[in-house]
Write a structure and sequence with these properties.
heterodimer; A: FAD/NAD(P)-binding domain; 2 domains; 28% helix; B: 118 residues; mainly alpha; binds flavin-adenine dinucleotide
Chain lengths: 421, 118
């Protein structure tokens, strides 16, 4: 069965618009078809820019709404509404990006065809895979889907975010919040610590006798010295971090007893947040594009998956060398990938890209810190450009921290406009 | 149809601006039916340039928009950040990742998108 634009149940009206001959675009690189799987920061950006370049592109995304993880930690702290995290694909559809509102079920790499969950197929000349992450419910004993209703992960924003927020609201003053953070690699390296900070802000302002314990499967984390100093300064003894060598690695979850089990002991939680180990989105694993690590190795110039010509991987699912799994990185990779794909379809070589990442974290509503990096291909990987990048200054005045908190919000506004606006 | 297509482009001032200047210059022929061309300018953008748009959008926020800056302004700012002559924010850490030539190419491209003179 072939996918036709007449399938209005699946394709939006804009897809039909895109198929109108009158809207043919100058310099369109032949009739080559690109399929993008996943409409997150990576995939939605890539589809939008490919369309702007005159490439025929179909975005495959089952959800009508996208709920953003960036700034969802502020929702947990009661500083923001989940509504303000929610975006639609309306602007993309209006611009003429064809959107298939279904899940991609399988990829036939030899036939260059994607099978959708409704049985339809989409042929492609080039495929962009951007499915984000899968949370591993098989990696931490006791932590399965059912357990995530007791100890939410809230690592994909939406109902899980709301659930964790409700639990925090319901907790009595003097309670203990426990967060377990995974080993590398995972989505948003500073995310667990921003989350701890903003929950501590909520506790300090509403339930000051409470405690927050972070159990960590590693000994070092992103922006560690800045976070640690800020916790002391802002939250005193409320926040405690236990790293791997101090016995912080969680080995089992006992949701019935509301307990986190570590190598050295047990910790009862009034509210528990388990950030479990992760891997690339399921379709990347089931189609054999992810390697044994669970993530997709890529060529740093074309973003093509290793040994998979014609399949490009961007965003959290990719192994992007020194680049962290962030929305900023996903958006930057998506634009470089759209450039590479467009040129390759025209029979030209993709240029060697340079990429940038910036991740802001809020330690309190008016206290922001950041990490930045610049990357370029070296020895087959996206590698940090020496001498560039780094974290915010230690011991900066409050005005600098407040300015960075403002930049964080400005970044969110601008990037979501670039992707969905 | 034409009205609709016009509105589509109108949703983003950035797109509108770029399709009026850089993109249109690169597009060989105006598309049929009076629809404005989507912005293809990024296809010819120099390394690193499109990543800037993650923070610097069509409108100023707490982060400046580059839309009203000339190529020379952007290039000078990047040089000052790179050489540590401007109060360090975040841009000093990013500017150090680009050579003077790369920075100039980015400045030229960004200014062209907004329609200002190099
Ligand atoms: C708490 C938290 C805070 C964060 N804060 C920041 C921050 O401040 N700054 C920052 O830069 N990053 C932040 N991040 C990281 C950021 O959310 C991710 O890096 C980003 O979402 C990655 O984008 P992506 O497009 O790769 O994946 P996603 O955004 O997850 O998008 C993947 C999309 O693919 C779709 N999909 C999956 N499988 C299929 C399939 N088979 N068929 C069709 N569609 C499919 C999904 O529905 C989804 O829409 C944060 C993350 C968390 C958890």
């Amino acid at each position: 069965m072939t996918f036709k634009p007449t399938r209005r149940s699946v394709l939006t009206g804009a897809a039909a618009l895109a198929a109108t001959p009158g809207l043919a675009i100058a310099q369109a690189p032949s009739s080559a078809q690109v399929v993008v799987i996943g409409g997150g920061f990576a995939g939605a950006t890539c589809a939008r820019y490919l369309h702007r370049a005159g490439v025929k592109v179909t975005l495959v995304e089952p959800s009508a709404q996208y709920i953003s993880c960036p700034f969802s930690n502020a929702v947990l702290a009661g500083l923001r509404d989940l509504k303000d995290q929610t975006f639609t694909y309306d602007a993309l559809a209006r611009e003429g990006v064809a959107i298939a509102r279904v899940e991609a079920a399988a990829i036939d790499r030899d036939a260059r065809r994607v099978t959708l969950s409704d049985g339809a197929t989409l042929a492609y000349d080039r495929l962009v895979l951007a499915p984000g992450i899968d949370l591993r419910f098989d990696a931490l004993p006791g932590y399965d889907l059912a357990a995530s209703e007791i100890f939410p992960h809230a690592w994909k924003a939406g109902a899980q975010t709301t659930l964790l927020r409700r639990q925090l609201e319901a907790m009595a003053d003097g309670g203990t919040v426990v967060i377990s953070a995974p080993a590398n690699l995972f989505r948003c390296p500073p995310g667990p610590y921003e989350r701890a900070s903003l929950i501590a802000h909520y506790l300090k302002t509403t339930k000051p006798k409470s405690k927050l314990l972070i159990l960590d499967a590693k000994d070092a984390f992103s922006k560690q010295s800045l976070f640690t100093a800020a916790w002391k300064e802002l939250y005193g003894d409320m926040v405690e971090w236990v790293g791997l060598s101090a016995g912080g690695k969680v080995t089992e979850i006992a949701p019935g007893e509301k307990t986190f089990v570590t190598e050295f002991g047990k910790h009862r939680a009034d509210v528990g947040n388990v950030i479990p180990p992760q891997r690339a989105g399921r379709i990347a694993v089931s189609s054999g594009i992810a390697d044994q690590t669970g993530w997709c190795p890529i060529d740093p110039v074309t973003f093509e998956a290793r040994q998979q010509p014609g399949v490009h991987v961007i965003g959290d699912a990719a192994i992007a060398g020194g680049m962290p799994k962030s929305a900023f990185a996903a958006n930057a990779q998506a634009k470089a990938c759209a450039q590479a794909v467009t040129l390759m379809l025209r029979g030209q070589a993709a240029p060697s890209p340079k990429l940038i990442n910036t991740c802001y974290s809020l330690v309190a509503p008016d206290y922001g810190i950041s990490v930045a990096g610049v990357y370029q291909p070296a020895k087959g990987l996206l590698t940090d450009v020496a001498g560039a990048g780094g974290v915010s200054m230690a011991k900066a005045p409050a005005s600098v921290r407040a300015a960075e908190a403002g930049y964080a919000e400005a970044w969110f506004k601008t990037i979501t406009h670039d992707v969905f606006g | 149809m034409a009205t609709r297509a016009f509105k589509v482009i109108g949703v983003s001032a950035w797109v509108a601006l770029s399709s009026m200047t850089g993109a249109l210059a690169q597009t060989q022929a105006a598309p049929a039916s009076g629809a404005a061309a989507p912005s293809q300018a990024f296809v010819a953008s120099p390394p690193g340039a499109t990543a800037c748009l993650g923070c610097h959008g069509p409108e100023a926020t707490a982060l400046p928009s580059l839309a009203r800056l000339s190529s020379a302004d952007i290039e000078a700012a990047l040089a000052d950040y790179r050489d540590g002559k401007r109060e360090p924010t975040l841009m000093n850490r990013i500017a150090k990742g680009f050579s003077p030539e790369e920075s100039k190419a980015i400045a030229d491209w960004l200014a062209a998108q907004a329609g200002s003179k190099p």
